[in-house]
Amino acid sequence: MRSGLVLLALILLTSFLPGAAHAAPRASEPVYDYAKAVRETVWVDIGRDGDGDGRSDRVAADIVRPGEATTPVPVIMDASPYYSCCGRGNESELKTYDSAGKPVKFPLFYDNYFVPRGYAVVLVDLAGTNRSAGCADVGGASDVGSARKVVDWLNGRATGYTAKTGGSAVSASWSTGNVGMIGKSYDGTIANGVAATGVAGLKTIVPISAISSWYDYYRSDGATFGFNPAGLAQTVEARNSGQNCSAQNQVLTQGATSNGDYGPLWAERDYVANAANVRASVLLSHGVNDLNVKTIHFGQWWAGLNVEKKIWLAQTGHVDPFDYRRADWVDLLHRWFDHYLLGIDNGVQNGPQASVERQPDQWADQSAYPAANAVATTLRPHTSGALGTAAASGTASFTDNPSVGEDAWVTNPGTAALTYSTGALASDVQVSGTSSVTVTATPSTSSARVSALLVDLGPATIRNFAGSGEGIKTSTAENCWGSSSSGDDACYRITSADVKKVNYTILSRGWADLANYASLSQERVLTPGTAYTMTFRLASTDHVVPRGHALALIIGGTDGSFIRGPAQPGRVTLDLARTSVSVPLAGTVPAATTHPAPAGGAFVPSQGRADLR
């Protein structure tokens, strides 16, 4: 709050300095009266009949814009399925309307803060949700089209109406056509999807903890997490206007096969495949301990982008930066939107590309993500229990036990997993980027899972990402960000870091079905006693393993914390000469030809995992 007030004071002060009247503005100022803002709803035709009622679906775009503006204004847009079913933000805010149906409450602070500064805020109900016609399709053409058509309407390329059915056509003559999409989770996912279409007028996106490929939300290299998109569709449609979406939900059920194969349904929802189409700049944020939208999503999306971009990586789980670094985030958003939507030359695109939380509330900037000096380094497990750069030989076996998972593997693996460690490191080692594991595995049965972890063995104080707040605590006190009205205040509860002490940190995870060794599109029945080689990804991260700690690789079968087990769990034998992990490392790891002593002392199990809904 204080930093926001200081920024405003500096803007006002510099505006009165000699020559300031002739200088280009460095920041938009709150010159419009929020109480006089225009609030309205426009229903945009998306050219689909998803609910099968014989009419083209129209989606509701709730708009709040400066009433006093005499020239067109840019748009900040959040397209979401959650405005009536689940709420947005840490306080689960919902939209509200007056007796005539005019929008009153716009969730989150974007309207309160940015409308007085000369922006319109448009909150779109995705098809099949809240007041929109049609049906949700969980990241498919209907979802993405809902938001893209609104961008088109804001640029004069689509038709909007004054009513859900009938009504008069209405244009967005008040809009410059410059649109920035923002949102957390599902909302940020839609921003990714729309950007991947390359739609003109979308100048920037701000995806927060967002999905980049829906396959990787429900599946992982052939393994399944045990939940499916039809359930999510039914949740977001629960408070729609009564349209029947059973046919669309059946399409989702049939397309999301019970195994982990990658098929047409997933290909339609794979935005990474079209990342080269993105023209918008990207301001991305994600928690490196997000176990809902797992971190592979930001890593693969980031790698596919060829635009101006910046990234924030927090120690949190599935949390908005407004709730872990509030003042800095609002300041950054202000400068980001000013630059990309208003064209103000404030230099926000320059400077460090990444900001990473190393310890709770302690942030470090770096020139690039992954770190510029990180090099893909191949580490190999040895029969001695060592992990290092030297060549390995021999075999090792584990017995799949789907009833246990990652924490037990670290603290008491027994026969269910294999642990390989570098031993105490002589200097800090940074893991920055996306790792991958290659196994050559011989199963004793006709089906098998393989999971892997990278672990920092050593004591640390971290955000309690597995707690109820996923790394934050929420107080009853509030601070305010913008102007308020009787039905839409700008004040939000203050949060702080929820911390805990641990003796190990799981910094990256990955899961695979060995039956998909040859193709993610078609699993194969395994022949017991036959060796199969498969490479699968571990989650993207940026983590420093301190001097004196050890970096460990743990390989097991079914990680019961996340994935479903095979039909016939059995014994799996690894050929260590053909098993390795490729890790993007900055720093030195020993050759590890001798058995290392464990680092970090006694282990303390972490708390339960975050909800994977």
What does this structure look like?
Helix 4 links the parallel strand 9 (175-184) and strand 10. The protein has 613 residues and is α+β, with helices and mostly antiparallel strands. The protein has a twelve-stranded mixed beta sheet with strand order 8-7-1-2-6-3-9-10-13-14-15-16, sandwiched between helices. 16% of the residues lie in helices and 31% in strands. The chain is built from eleven helices and 31 strands. The two termini are 33 Å apart.
Report the average pLDDT across residues.
Answer: 93
Low-confidence stretches: 1-22, 595-613
Strand content: 25-35%
Taking the alpha carbons of the first and last residues, their distance comes to: 33 Å
Strand order of the largest sheet: 8-7-1-2-6-3-9-10-13-14-15-16
Q: What is the tally of helical segments? A: 11
Structure summary, number of beta strands = 31
Sheet having the most strands: 12 strands, mixed
* Overall geometry: globular
Radius of gyration, in Å, reads: 25 Å
Helix content: 10-25%
- Classify the secondary structure makeup into a structural class: alpha+beta
Based on the model shown, name its key terms:
single chain; 613 residues; alpha+beta; 12-stranded mixed β-sheet; 9-stranded antiparallel β-sheet; 11 helices; 16% helix; disordered N terminus; disordered C terminus
Short description:
Strand 9, helix 4 (186-195) and strand 10 form a beta-alpha-beta unit.
Secondary structure layout:
Elements (H helix, E strand, L loop, with lengths): L1 H13 L23 E8 L12 E8 L7 E8 L15 E2 L5 E3 L4 H5 L5 E6 L15 H14 L5 E2 L7 E2 L4 E10 L1 H10 L6 E7 L6 H4 E2 L2 E2 L4 H8 L9 H10 L8 H5 L12 E7 L8 H9 L4 E6 L11 H17 L11 E6 L2 E5 L8 E7 L5 E2 L6 E5 L6 H6 L5 E5 L7 E5 L2 E8 L5 E15 L8 E9 L10 E7 L1 E15 L18 E6 L3 E5 L4 E7 L14 E5 L4 E7 L27
Helix pairs in contact: 1-10, 3-4, 6-7
